[in-house]
Amino acid sequence: MVAITGGMGSGKSSVAAYLCEIGGAKGLSADTICRQLLEPKAVGWLAVRKAFGEKFFLADLHIDRPLLRKILFEDHEFRQELNSLLHPLVRNEITDRIEKELSRLAELQSQARFVVEVPLLYEVHWEQDFPQIVVAYADEKACQRRIMLRDGISEAEAEKAMATQMSLSEKARLADHVIDNSGAWPETCLQIVHLRNLLW
User: Fold this and answer.
1) Is there a contact between 28 and 94 (Cβ–Cβ < 8 Å)?
2) 132 — phi, psi (to 5°)?
3) pLDDT digits (tens, 9 = 90+) for 79-95
4) Is CATH 3.40.190.10 correct for 1-25+113-200?
5) What is 32-111's CATH topology?
6) Residues of CATH 3.40.50.300 domain(s) within the chain?
7) For position 196, what pLDDT does the model report?
8) Mean of pLDDT values over 68-81
9) Contact 86, 34 (CB under 8 A)
10) What is d(CA 136, CA 100) in angstroms, rounded to the nearest whole number?
11) Are 25 and 37 in contact (CB under 8 A)?
């Protein structure tokens, strides 16, 4: 089981997807699971509604994601409170899905490989959950450009968002493996092929 982490705009999802593709691994994403848990009437949705009332809900009962995102990046205490609600739910869901898949693969006598994308792995101290941790790294300016392009936000907003997470250089120092995604994608792919050979 391998965790992929990194920073905003560092290319975690692309690295995780390609490693799954060439390694025959099952991919899971903490962000995707979190979004699913925040769908109307899901367990995360219920937790947010209980903690914060109607503030973050639209007329159709979906969460107002732009508003939630804005306050997340501006209010440290709120970010901590929301994370303390949602992160245990996400962690449990990841564990449940892996256990179910392991049972299924055991019946098929098939090999089990998992790649789990966890953006805030070091911030939430999940290091012990994974025997191998890979950091998708890119230089700060590259990350900033990608975030601005992806989210349609200003340089100042991108900087503020990036400042809410541990620095990428610090994450890279803690990792078992580092993929440098600062340059062209084919160069990154060569590193991922090498990583697959090391892991499996």
Assistant:
1) yes
2) -135, 130
3) 999 999 999 999 999 99
4) no
5) Rossmann fold (3.40.50)
6) 1-25+113-200, 32-111
7) 97
8) 89
9) yes
10) 28
11) no
